Amino acid sequence: MASTSDIRNGLCIKYNNDIYKITEFLHVKPGKGPAFVRTKMKSVTNGKVLDNTFSAGHKIEEVRVETHKFQYLYNDGEFYHFMNQEDFTQIRLLESALDRADLMKEGEVVTIQINTEDNMPLSVEMPATVILEVTATEPGVKGNTATNATKPATVETGAEVNVPLFINEGDKIKVETEKGTYKERIKE
């Protein structure tokens, strides 16, 4: 058993007969009253996000997990297929288990958390940033840059990302996977 002081991002816990992964947390110590921990948790079974507040010292049941590197192979419409980098075994996951499936291209190496009790995959962590090629975007209009102007661009995985006006088709860009936002252009 763990307590609220052990809460951290990525921690998997059992709560209400389901397994949740902590995505955000905040320890709050008000001037009046007891301390508490405000959390945002995502169910690993159905993908629903739940806001919950635990009082300080509350006991939580931690799920023991192992992390393994897997390579994304392909998507067959319903399942996403991955291969273990160590023993080359393959697993398949539903899209609900993935945070940003639209930013994942074939060959991408991700970290998958696996429940040690039943060897079931719990969640997929993508790298902090991915490099993707812009496949479609409108040309930027000169003189339209008085402010921090952006335009929508479609990348090779089919995702849409807002990019600055100077980005053109064929450019490679770095995208932050957590928010799905443009970070920088990659020069070759």
Automatic annotation (TrEMBL):
UniProt cross-references to CDD domains, sorted A to Z: S1_EF-P_repeat_1, S1_EF-P_repeat_2
Alphabetical list of PROSITE patterns matching this protein: EFP (PS01275)
SMART domains listed in its UniProt record: EFP, Elong-fact-P_C
Domain of life: Bacteria
Keywords from the named record: Cytoplasm, Elongation factor, Protein biosynthesis
Coiled coil as UniProt keyword: no
SUPFAM superfamilies: Nucleic acid-binding proteins, Translation proteins SH3-like domain
Subcellular localization(s) per the UniProt record: Cytoplasm
Residues of the Elongation factor P C-terminal domain: 130-185
GO cellular component: cytosol
Domain called Translation elongation factor P/YeiP central: residue spans: 67-122
One GO BP annotation of this record: peptide biosynthetic process
InterPro entries, per database record: Elong-fact-P_C, NA-bd_OB-fold, Rib_uL2_dom2, Transl_elong_fac_P/YeiP, Transl_elong_KOW-like, Transl_elong_P/YeiP_cen, Transl_elong_P/YeiP_CS, Transl_elongation_fac_P
GO molecular function, one term: translation elongation factor activity
Pathway recorded for this protein: Protein biosynthesis; polypeptide chain elongation
Family as reported in the entry's similarity comment: Belongs to the elongation factor P family.
UniProt-listed PANTHER family: ELONGATION FACTOR P (PTHR30053), ELONGATION FACTOR P (EF-P) FAMILY PROTEIN (PTHR30053:SF12)
Function: Involved in peptide bond synthesis. Stimulates efficient translation and peptide-bond synthesis on native or reconstituted 70S ribosomes in vitro. Probably functions indirectly by altering the affinity of the ribosome for aminoacyl-tRNA, thus increasing their reactivity as acceptors for peptidyl transferase.
Record protein name field: Elongation factor P
Organism the protein comes from: Gelidibacter algens
